[in-house]
Amino acid sequence: MALETYPNVEQGTDEWLALRTGIITASEMNYILTPTLKTANNDKTRQHVWEIAAQRINNYTEPSYIGDAMLRGHADEIIARDLYSEHIEPVQEVGFFVRDIDGVRVGYSPDGAFPFSNGGIEVKSRVQKYQLQTIATNEVPIEHRLQLQAGLFVTGWDYIDYVSFSGGMPMWIISTKPDPEYQDAIHAAVLDFESKVQDAIDTYHDRLKTAPVIIDTERQNHDMEMIIT
Q: Is residue 84 part of a domain?
């Protein structure tokens, strides 16, 4: 399972987007695997199959537009990383990791990596009610567990510190290590999803062969900001 690292690629740049195009990423693992670790097969899964297939065919990722929550999350990530470096352990920005799993590429963009140990951080900006819940339960929220485990799956790190941040409340850190049950389920789900993507691509090309006329079009490039987390 070969690992490719791109430490100097800045997240959100064209180069970073190109690395992500057409591959499964840790942040999207909830589309292909359920919280109970069953291979997902629902509307979101099927839409993601078409999305990844289209990215590969066109070598293009459509923009995702910035909302208030995403802007706040980006700003909070910077603050949280600086606070972590100041109070816990130095952490540095990194770009992208890609793991080849039986010929299938899986990517992960952590929010930071430790220069002196085999691990990193994943920051989540939280509204106060969820921050309170995370502190009280001292558990990684279920909606984030798959991303963390997928990040560990891709990087091979010993741990990822989940950093829950909500301005005005204490920052909360929960260390997460690889869970064998999650790791096996992610491996199986990745291979199953890849099979669906390949089927979609083959179906598309077969359909084009039957079209009496092919009318090509040009993409209209609009100057719009985007961010993918």
A: yes
Q: Which residues pair with 97 in a beta bridge?
A: 5, 108
Rounded to whole angstroms, the maximal C-alpha distance in the chain is 66
Q: How many Cβ atoms sit within 10 Å of the Cβ of residue 121?
A: 24
Question: Which of 65, 29, 11 minimizes the C-alpha distance to 183?
Answer: 29
Sequence-separated (6 or more) residues with CB below 8 Å from residue 60: 21, 219
Q: What is the pLDDT of residues 106-137, one digit of tens each?
A: 999 999 999 888 999 999 999 999 999 999 99
Q: What is the CATH number of the domain that holds 123?
A: 3.90.320.10
The tens digit of pLDDT for each residue in 72-105 reads 778 899 999 999 999 999 999 989 999 999 899 9
- DSSP secondary structure letters along 188-205: HHHHHHHHHHHHHHHHHH
Half-sphere exposure of 42 (CA within 13 A, CB side): 9
Within-domain flag for 152: yes
Cα gap 177→185, rounded to integer Å: 15
The parent domain of residue 166 ranges over 3-205
Is residue 211, in this structure, part of any structural domain at all? Answer: no
Whether 190 is covered by a domain: the verdict is yes
Q: How many domains does the chain contain in total?
A: 1
